[in-house]
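Why does residue order matter? Because the sequence determines the fold. Keep that principle in mind as you read this record.
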Amino acid sequence: MRLTKVLSVAAIAVGFAGGAMAQVQSIATPPQGSVWNTMASVMAGQARESAGQRFVVQPYGGNAQMMQALDGALAEFSLNDVNDVITAVTGKGEYDRTHENLRVVARINPFPVGLYVRADSGMTQVSDLGGRSVPSGWDAFPLARSHITAILAAGGLKWDDVDQVPVPELIRGSDDMASGRVDSAFFAVGGPKVAEVDASIGGVRFLGVEANDNTLAAIQAVRPAFYFSEVTPAPPRVGVVEPTTFVTWDNVLVAGAHVSGEAVADFLAVIFDESEAIGAAYPPLRALTLETAYRAYPGVDYHPGAVAFFEARGVALSDAE
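Structure:
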């Protein structure tokens, strides 16, 4: 199933929403063009095609709005960084209250993120950004603040070591880099927007970091579930021009506590039983495996429907990395 096909199917599901609201479930995501929006569209399309489930992929302005929608029973599912889910549940960081109705459903995949630059910039490592401009502010996407803080720390830098240029959110940040307003942009590896910028300016590359005990301690001081992973070049990984170490988090599917156990189990069945088709539609989702999907994280609980699903499939809860 091609990506264009599943996006079309997801769009058709939106059209059905008016006549069958009680049967439609929504997935809260960032704006179109983001990795999570694309992933959600692929999974929603597969759920409709293979199981007749109805989903609306509903874009929000940022992670806080997404988590508020789940906590307030305005949406059923979302995709998020597990660190941000932990922060939202505890009411810390960018969250001014606890979001006690958030439940982890499954670990979806490792999610390497980085700062990328023009391929002809001469920069190859995050440490090269000293004295150069880096996107800051992120009023509409505050999650990026902690991620860039960790990326800079892994490169031996602090915010005071770079020129801070305010941007509101992910897509705008990449557009500003393409236009030359800022030297670097923040995005996840495999993001469609990175490929768009790459084509428009003649090439981009992600900046690498060095993984050692000191840099690991530095990134985990920002968020406890950050870790490092090495990413190798591949056609979907635009901007990865050589094996590169990235700050990484676990991307998780989240549900509101109001979602029924049956609805959670049904969606999980599609995700893992149809993982081959989902991965073919969007290659970063080829990392979907049932064996690594049930992982413990500090400060967050799994949805009872997910617990029952994994137990029925014989998958035991494993420790986080």
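The radius of gyration is 19 Å.
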